[in-house]
Amino acid sequence: MSDVAVVGRFAGPIALGAVGSTSILVTLFTGILLGLSSGVNALTALYIGSRNEEDVKETVHTAAVLCFLTGVLITLLGIAFSRPILTVMHTKDELIEDALIYLRIYLLGMPALGVFNFGNSVLSATGDTKRPLYYLSLAGILNVLMNLFFVIVCHLDVAGVALASILAQYFSAVMILIILLRTKECFGLQLSSLRISPSKLKRIVRIGIPSAFQYAIFALANLFVQ
To answer: Is residue 37 within 8 Å of 60, Cβ to Cβ?
Structure first.
């Protein structure tokens, strides 16, 4: 919303149209990561409730790797197929190049979004919903300020608002990672323990994939309408 507002006010109608034409795709990619993280939340909460610390540790470390790699995969596929997708959407010729710039830069933030959603799911499973909200709110404020700086001062237009978005996403991801790396609780992260447990991966995916499809279906339906 802030990207659209800033380019609409300070960068002109072409930039506004370019950013607006990608909004459904952004919603689609974001929804997939949100859906996947619901599996992380459910399984982490289950093991915390049953006081099974070893299963909590395996779930958290498996989920961290899974969510990050899913973000990377979305980035790679999105960048590779962004032009064909925008073409199929009948994006206007005068908008498509700027839309490509915005979308490809924005997609670079998907790994950070995956990590933030992972951390948010883990902390929410422990009952801590405040700190993720604070960090996300602060990231939103930074996003708006950086949007204004990159567009008004640096004259970067669509590239500027996309850059501001991914910087804000990486900020929120880093902040939530700091919490998980510093905590001594069983749900804390240890870099040396980052690995995938096949059994936990299967359970996360079993819950997360259907949820991801639910988010994706709404975006796909809007995509066809557009």
So the answer is: no
Q: Cα(160)–Cα(149) distance, rounded to whole angstroms?
A: 8
167 and 107 in contact (C-beta within 8 Å)?
Answer: no
| Residue whose token pair is 């790679």 | 76
Across the range 84-103, mean pLDDT stands at 90
DSSP state of 205: H
| pLDDT per position as a tens digit, 26-77 | 888 988 999 999 999 999 999 999 888 999 999 999 999 999 999 999 999 9
pTM, two decimal places: 0.90
Phi, psi for residue 154 in degrees, rounded to 5: -95, -10
Count of alpha carbons within 13 Å of 138, Cβ hemisphere only? Answer: 13
Please answer whether residues 85 and 71 qualify as being in contact, where contact means their C-beta atoms are separated by less than 8 angstroms. no
Opening angle at CA 44, ends 42 and 49, nearest 5: 95
Contacts of 9 (CB under 8 A, 6+ apart): none
Name the DSSP letter for residue 166: H
Alpha carbons 60 and 196: distance in angstroms, whole number? 10
Closest alpha carbon to 120 in 141, 106, 136:
136
Contact 59, 195 (CB under 8 A): no
Question: Would you say the C-alpha torsion 42, 47, 49, 54 has a positive or negative sign?
Answer: negative
| Whole-angstrom distance, CA of residue 46 vs CA of residue 121 | 12
- Residue pair 157/15 in contact by the 8 Å Cβ criterion: yes
Taking the C-alpha atoms of residue 105 and residue 85, their distance in angstroms, rounded to an integer, is: 16
CA of residue 145 relative to chain centroid, distance = 20
